Every structure is written in C-alpha cells, then in structure tokens.
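[recover] target loaded
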C-alpha cells in the first residue's frame, strides 16, 4: 500500500468518527493553521505522529519492510 502519511491520517480521521482536521489539531496541541500547513507540505515529525496517534486513541508503529520479501526487517 503506497499511501502517504497525509492520506493515511485522513483515513484514520474518518474511521475514528470523521474527526475534522481542526479538531485533530486541537487534540494534538496545534493550531488548525499549523496542522493545515503540515498537511500541505506532508511534513510530520515522528513526535507529531505519536501525538496524532494518541489523539486518535491508537498506537503508532513504524517499520522498515524488505522490498524483496515484503517482511519487516526486524
């Protein structure tokens, strides 16, 4: 699945009850304008993704997948 981070966050917002971008920004301690800028540039730090996961009542898991076997490296 080749979904960028911005699209993935949007999918998660919908699955969690159609949470607005502005509401997600408030839940993560950001202004809606700042969140919107991150969406436009698709520039999220891992620490921000952790806050977003927390706001969505979810765990953040990041892994590297081997391109040949399609399995996690570790």
């Amino acid at each position: 699945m080749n979904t960028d981070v911005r699209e993935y966050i949007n999918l998660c917002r919908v699955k969690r009850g159609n949470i607005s971008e502005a509401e997600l920004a408030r839940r993560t301690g950001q202004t809606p304008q700042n969140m919107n800028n991150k969406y436009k540039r698709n520039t999220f730090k891992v620490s921000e993704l952790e806050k977003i996961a927390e706001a969505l009542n979810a765990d953040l898991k990041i892994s590297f997948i081997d391109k040949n076997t399609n399995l996690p490296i570790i």
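[recover] notes: Residues 5-55 form one domain.
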